[in-house]
Amino acid sequence: MKADARYNAPAAPQATDPWDGLVLVDKASGPTSHDIVAGIRRRFGIAKVGHGGALDPMATGLLVILLGRGTKLADQFTASDKAYEGDMHFGVATDSQDADGKVTAEADASFVTRGMVEERAAAMVGDMYQTPPMVSAVKVNGVPLYKRARKGEVIERTPRLIHVYRFDITDFRFPLASFSVVCTKGTYIRTLCADMGTALGCGAHLARLRRTRCGDLSIDDALPYGEVLRLDRDGFLARVLPIRMFAGRRGHGGALQQ
Amino acid sequence: MRTLGSLSGLKSIKRPVVLAAGFFDGLHRGHARVIDRAIRMARSVTGEAWALTFDTHPLRALGMATPPLLTSNLHKLVLMERMGLDGCVMLRFGKQLAGVKAETFIRMLFESAPTLAGICAGRDWRFGRGAAGDVALLAESAGPRGVEVTAVTSVKDGRLPVSSTRIRECIRHGKFTDAARMLGRPYSFMGVVTRGRGVGRQLGFPTANLAPDNEALPPPGVYAAAAAVESRRCTGLLYCGNRPTFRGRGRQSIELHLLDFEGDLYGRRLEVFVTRRIRGERSFASAELLRAQIARDATRVRKSFQMTAGNPRASLSTRSGNSGFTRSGRASILRADKQRKKGNKDRIRKG
Questions:
Q1: What CATH number was assigned to the domain covering residues B186-350?
Q2: Which among A60, A117, B17, B252 is most buried, taking Cβ atoms within 10 Å?
Q3: pLDDT digit string (tens) for A109-137?
Q4: What region, left, alpha or beta, does residue A64 occupy, with left being phi > 0 and alpha being psi -120 to 50 degrees?
Q5: Is B193 helix (H, G, I), strand (E, B) or coil?
Q6: How confident is the model over B156-215, as pLDDT tens digits?
Q7: What's the rounded Cα separation, in Å, for the pair B234 and B317?
C-alpha cells in the first residue's frame, strides 16, 4: 500500500515555475562556495539560492547551484558520489593540507617515483576510515572545526567511513602528481593527499583541485561563474534544469558509472 | 511554453535549439528520458529545448487503424510544459507530410532551424516516407553541420520496455498503479464539462459530465479520482459507463462528482487523475438504491484518499463518521463490503 501512495494521491499539479531548479556552475578559484551563491542571488534577485555541496575556496569545478524549490534537493546532491581531478605536491606538508595553509614540514621527496605513487593510490581504493582535517567545516559539538583550528586548537576527530571507487595517477612531473579520483560524499581529497605524503614519508599537500562530476551531473554541462554573471535573466533561465528531472529519485544520490 | 504549427517559426529563435523528436503519446517515462536528454543538452549550451511532434498519429493519417491514444494534443502540450520544455513544434501530419522523403525532411529541419544544436529521439524513432529515416540517417547528415544527435534507449519496467501499448493495456484493465509507474505520473485525462441531464444532481450527487479529449479511458465502473480546480486539489468519484440504471443507450458517459465541492464547472476543461477502481458497473432496480450505493462509494473514496496519503480535507470531513483510519475502521469497511455484496445478490434475486 505504501509503495502506491506516491501515485494514488496526486497533488494538484503545482504551477511550474521556471525559477525552480538547478544551475551547473564552474567555480573559479578564490571565492568560497557561499560567495558564488550570494553573487547569483544578488545578480538575478532570487530569494532562495543554495548549493549542493561546497567546494573549498581554492578548488574549481562543478558547483550545483539550487534555486527556489530546488533548494529542497540539497541533501540529494550533497549525498551524491563525486569525481575530482587535481595535483598533489610532494615534499611539503601544510596545516590545512592544501596550498592555502602554513607549511608545517618540508622534506626531500626526490626519491618519489610515479610507480610508488600509483601503488599507494591503488592501495587507497576501497572502504576506509578518514579523519577529517582540522581545517574543515565538519562540526564537533555544533562548532565547525575550522573555528577551533583558527584558535590554534587541535582536537580529536571521529574518523568517517568513506569509499574510493578509483584513484588514478594521470601524470607525474616531480614534485607534482596529477590524479583523478571518484569517491563517496564527505571525502576530503586533501586528506587523501596528506595521507599519501605520510605513507611515502616525505609529506604532501593538495596543490590543485577540480570537481568534474557530482552524481550524474558533469562539469561539461557547467558554465564558468564569470560567464553566468554576464547572462541576462532569460539567458540564466536557459541554464536552469527543472527540478522534476531530479525530484522523486529514491535513496541517496546515484552512483557514478565507472 | 510556446507552440508552433510549422518549422519555420524556429527561424526567429536566437539561442541554440535542441529538439526532442517523437509522437510522444502518453508522455511516459521512456518519452521523459528523451525529453530530459534534450533539456540537459539545451541547458548546457544556454539554449532552448523544444519538442518536435505531429498532430495526428502517422498511421491514422494514412487511414490505418490506430489504438486509442492516451493523450490528446492539448493534454500533450500541458504535460510537456510541466516537464520543463520551452516549446513544442506540432506539425500537421497529413498525406502531404507523409509523402516527404526522409532526406528532404532532414533538409527542411536544418534549413528552418538555423540555431539547431541537437536532436534527441528514441532509438527506434522513424520518419519520412515509408518510415525510411532513422536516427542513424539523421546523425549522418547532422554530423557535418555540428548538430549533435542522440539516440535514447528505452526505459525498462520489469523485463520489458515501457511503451504506450503496455500502458493502454493497464488502463483498459483498470490497473492504475501499474500505469502510473510506467507513466512516471498518475494516469489522467482531460475533458470539458458539458451540460448533462441533471440526474446526478437529483440524486444528491451533482456530477460534471465530461467530454473527454483523450481516447484511452478507464473501463466501465466507479473510480477514486482527483482534479485540479483553480489550482486546488479536489477529490471525487469518477463514473465511466452507459448508465444502465437509466437505460442509457450505448453512449459512454464520463461523470465526475467532486466531494465537498460547490460551484459551477460548466465549460471548464479539467484534468482528471484516476487513482483506484472502486467497483464495476451494474444496474440498480431503483434510483434510490443507486443513490445509496453512490453514498457508500463516496465513503470508500474518502477512505482511499485518507489511507494513501495526506489530504487534510478528506480526513476532516470523515471525522464525524468513522473516527480516522484505524484497523477497526478497515475491518468495518470490509464488513460493509461483504454485507453489500450479499445485499446486492438478494436484490437481484427479488428483482
A1: 2.40.30.30
A2: B17
A3: 999 999 999 999 999 999 999 999 988 88
A4: beta
A5: strand
A6: 999 999 999 999 999 999 999 999 999 998 899 999 999 888 888 888 899 999 999 888
A7: 13
In this structure, what C-alpha cell is assigned to residue B29? 517515462
A-proximal residues of B, 171-210, CB under 8 Å: 176-177, 180-181, 185-186, 188
Closest C-alpha to B276, from B179, B165, B182: B179
B84 with A244: Cβ contact below 8 A: yes
The domain locations on chain B are 2-160, 186-350
Question: Which of helix, strand or coil describes residue A179?
Answer: strand
B245-257 burial string, b = 16+ CB within 10 Å, else e? beeeeeeebbbbb
- pTM of the predicted structure, to 2 decimals: 0.82
- Best of B29, B43, B308 to substitute, by most chain A Cβ atoms within 10 angstroms, is B43
pLDDT tens digits for B274-313? 988 999 988 898 889 999 999 999 999 988 877 554 444 4
How far is residue A114 from each of residues A86, A90, A173, B183, measured CA to CA in Å? 15, 12, 9, 52
Strands B221-229 and B160-161: unpaired
When pLDDT is averaged across residues B83-96 and rounded to a whole number, the result is 93
Q: Is A95 a catalytic residue?
A: no
Asked if A5 lies within 8 A of B308 by C-beta distance, the reply is: yes
Is the per-residue pLDDT at B263 higher than 50?
A: yes
DSSP A17-36: PTTSEEEEEEEPSSS-HHHH
Query: In A97-232, where does DSSP find H-type helix?
Result: 114-123, 145-150, 189-200, 225-230
In sign, the C-alpha dihedral spanning B58, B63, B68, B74 is positive
A-chain CB neighbours of B276 within 8 Å are 8
Q: Is the ipTM of this complex over 0.90?
A: no
| B48-54 and B87-91 beta bridge pairing | parallel
d(CA A74, CA A243): 11
CB A127 within 8 A of CB A93: no
Q: How far apart are CA A9 and CA A3, in angstroms?
A: 12
* CATH number assigned to the domain covering B2-160: 3.40.50.620
Confidence of residue A248 (pLDDT cuts 50, 70, 90): low
Average pLDDT over every residue of B11-31: 95
Q: Is the peptide bond before A175 cis (omega within 30 degrees of 0)?
A: yes
Report how far apart, in Å, the C-alpha atoms of A17 and of each of A32, A41, B273 are. 28, 17, 22
Question: Selecting from 3.30.2350.10, 3.30.70.20, 1.20.120.1760, 2.70.20.10, what CATH number does the domain A82-210 have?
Answer: 3.30.2350.10
- Do the beta carbons of residue A135 and residue A193 sit within 8 Å? no
CA atoms within 13 A on the CB side of A195: 16
Query: Grid coordinates representing B33?
Result: 528520458
A89 to chain B, minimum CA–CA distance in Å?
33
Q: Is the Cβ of B48 closer than 8 Å to some Cβ of chain A?
A: yes
Q: Do A4 and B308 touch (CB under 8 A)?
A: yes
> Could you name the CATH architecture of A19-79+215-245?
2-Layer Sandwich (3.30)
A18 burial level (CB within 10 Å; 0-12, 13-18, 19+):
middle
Q: Where in chain A is the domain with CATH 3.30.2350.10?
A: 19-79+215-245, 82-210
